[in-house]
Specification:
Helix content is 28%, strand content 26%. The chain is α+β, with helices and mostly antiparallel strands and 363 residues long. The chain has 2 domains: 77 residues, 2-Layer Sandwich (NE0471 N-terminal domain-like); 271 residues, Clavaminate synthase-like (Double-stranded beta-helix, 4-Layer Sandwich), CATH 3.60.130.10. The relative contact order is 0.17. The model has no long low-confidence stretch (mean pLDDT 95). It binds N-oxalylglycine (OGA) and zinc ion (2 copies).
Length: 363
């Protein structure tokens, strides 16, 4: 009862679970905030039970006499001050940050057939994407457009100007350095898009070229290191919006976002880092030097060997990773050799939804 005394009346009333306030068929709210009495107060509170018999408190409201029954467990879970800071699962607080030695011997991976047939394997794989930022599916059929079927096992393909999927192979007139044999240092994809694709898939069809090995870096871990080692640099990178841009004959995309996105409580929640598409930062001249010192420092940190997990994709591997957190890289490869990946974008809200429903069914 103590807790209810401190609960703001509008917050409490807005969360009334009664069938007059929420449609029992779908749980959606039936009233507008403007429809509540302006002089709303709690008239009295009584011990009660929810319709399914759980301990609850009943609030009688003034001036309208409305009654609301709140399960005690719901109040404990939701009243601020009684639980830890809330989060949506997307910030560093809800992740397991890693470096390469820390992942040795426990790469998150799953066999494609087991992933398809065993809900527990699927749940573990999807959970790895949320917690560690990636999963490596093995023995995925080496088939044209298969990457789209992989995306559809957990969500929806995000079509872009590159198409439903993009071909990562050497092209004669590449509109992106990814489509050459050049080394690509750790980066996130498409920072020039808003909203940015939150998931990326890379499915290996052929990798017979000399070189072309893969790397992943946990950008949240790197940003947390920067915060500890160079707080001023970290601060600048969370505050300065960077203009990212991409243009070719048919497309002109731009987005202004900081390299490190943090939430209101200062928790890291999004990395955008791509030297290929960073435009001319506009800042007062004296701040430009500070920005460049910070950008360089973060860039150096991202290249520390112990931060990068190195591996080689072989035909049938499909990597699924969080493009708002992990940076990916590849070594240069001989353009005479055969290397062909198919990539696609998708989104993490769909993946999280699929996992939540899977857990509902397996619990
Ligand atoms: C990309 C990319 C990596 C690779 O296409 O975005 O970074 O291994 N490719 O070719
Ligand atoms: Zn109600
Ligand atoms: Zn890329």
């Amino acid at each position: 009862m103590e807790s209810l005394a401190s609960a703001p009346p509008f917050w409490l009333r807005d969360n009334c679970p009664c069938p007059a306030c929420r449609d029992p068929r779908n749980g959606q709210k039936l009233f507008q905030i403007t429809e509540l009495p302006a002089a709303l107060t709690v008239d009295s509170v009584h011990d009660a039970h929810t319709p399914d018999g759980a301990a609850a408190l009943e609030v009688v409201w003034a001036p309208d006499g409305h009654r609301s029954v709140y399960a005690e467990t719901w109040l404990q879970d939701h009243l601020l001050g009684t639980t830890a800071a809330s989060g949506d699962g997307r910030t560093e607080d809800d992740k397991e940050l890693w470096d390469a030695p820390g992942l040795a011997g426990r790469l998150p991976e799953a066999d494609w057939d087991a992933y398809l047939t065993d809900p527990a394997v699927r749940a573990t794989a999807l959970e790895s994407v949320l917690r560690l930022g990636f999963v490596l599916l093995r023995n995925v059929p080496v088939r044209d457009r298969q990457v789209l079927d992989v995306a559809r096992t957990f969500g929806y393909v995000r079509e872009t100007n590159y198409g439903e999927l993009f071909e990562v192979r050497v092209e004669a007139d590449p509109n992106n350095l990814a489509f050459t044999g050049a080394r690509i240092t750790p980066h996130t994809d498409n920072p020039y898009r808003d909203p940015v694709p939150t998931l990326q898939l890379l499915h290996c069809l052929t990798n017979a070229a000399q070189g072309g090995d893969s790397g992943l870096v946990d950008g949240f871990h790197a940003a947390a290191l920067l915060r500890a080692e160079a707080p001023e640099a970290y601060e600048i990178l969370t505050r300065v919006p960077v203009p990212f841009a991409f243009a070719d004959e048919h497309t002109e995309l731009r987005a202004h976002r900081p390299l490190i996105g943090a939430d209101r409580d200062g928790r890291i929640r999004e990395i955008r880092f791509n030297n290929r598409s960073i435009g001319a930062v506009r800042l007062p001249v004296d701040l430009l030097d500070a920005f460049y010192a910070a950008y360089r420092r973060f860039g150096e940190l991202l290249l520390r060997p112990e931060l990068q997990l190195d591996f080689r994709l072989t035909p049938g591997d499909c990597l699924i990773f969080d493009n708002t957190r992990l940076l990916h890289a590849r070594t240069a490869f001989a353009e005479s050799g055969a290397r062909h990946l198919q990539g696609a974008y998708a989104d993490i809200d769909g993946l999280a939804s699929t996992l939540a429903v899977l857990r509902r069914e397996t619990m």
